[in-house]
Write a structure and sequence with these properties.
The protein has helices spanning 2-12, 29-39, 42-64, 79-92, 96-109, 111-141. By secondary structure, it is an all-alpha fold. Helix 5 packs across helix 6. The termini are close together.
Length: 144
Amino acid sequence: MSDSILDQIRSNRKRTVVPSREDTLIAPKQESEQITQQSTPANETSKETTADNSTLEELKAELAKIPPTRRHSAVVLDAEIDANLTRFCKEKGVTVEVFLEAAWLQAVASSELMEKILLEAKCRYDSRKLAGKLRRLITMLSGR
């Protein structure tokens, strides 16, 4: 039954189609390359390219030392906790994501802390499941 409700929602949404446009302020790549080649002598261009390549390689090497990141799905939080966590992180000068990473690393390092966190997480999970069932029932009974 939830599939039919989802299908109804999807069929009711109307997305406008926006035609693509050309950005006239940015010169096409070929034209900008020709202008650059005409305005700089050949020996200056080779020096700049060599300097740019070495700087680029240094930056890439430095970046390789930092662990890669990956975007995770949207996180849904309790409204009050979200507000408090956001305010706390702003006051401390870190992002919520970086704070969660650090909290995870500390929890992994302490089995006692991890057990406390898991106990709280399981209680919150059960509560969220119940809230979801109640929302679904309310939606079904309201005739939407």
